[in-house]
Structures are given as C-alpha cells and as structure tokens.
Design a protein that fits this description.
By secondary structure, the protein is an alpha+beta fold. It contains three helices and five strands, in the order H-H-E-E-E-E-E-H. It has two domains: about 1-40; about 40-93, Irregular (HU Protein, Chain A), CATH 4.10.520.10. Helix 1 (about 5-15) packs across helix 2 (about 20-35).
Amino acid sequence: MNKGELIDKIAKDAKISKVQASNALNSAIDGVVVSLKKGGKVTLVGFGTFSVSSRKARTGRNPQTGAPLKIPAKKVTKFVAGAELKKAVNRGR
C-alpha cells in the first residue's frame, strides 16, 4: 500500500473527502517527524513505537577493495512493532 492508497482508505473509512484524509495523514506524519527531531519518541499503543537512536562512528571496509573507511556517527530512526500489530501480522500466515 502506498500513501495514495492509504489516503483513499482513510477517506472511505472515515467518510471524509480525500483532501481531508490527505491533510489528516500529513498532519500525523508531520507530528511524528517533529517529535523525533526533538529527540522524543512516539508511541501508538497496539501499533508500535517510533524513536531515534545514535550510532557511534566506526571503521568499515570497502567491499570491492577491502580498504578501511571511516563511517561517521549519525542518528537513525527506529520502529518497534507493538504487540497487537505483531499478533495481527502473525495471524495472517
């Protein structure tokens, strides 16, 4: 499912226009981004938790030449699925 399909589903399920559904989805996504930029985390009970963690700088290897290279430290986003999401996905097997 892509963003357009998700907007269609939200509009249909909530019985609102696609423009309203798009605005609602964009607002929710913006809220998550703003919170993560501030270093916070976003927990949607039953769905999961978005958070930011830091990776330390490290030394890697170029796979073609084997030469060492420095990989800089950076922040990465993480998502941990909630119990209800995990259960729903596993039932679909």
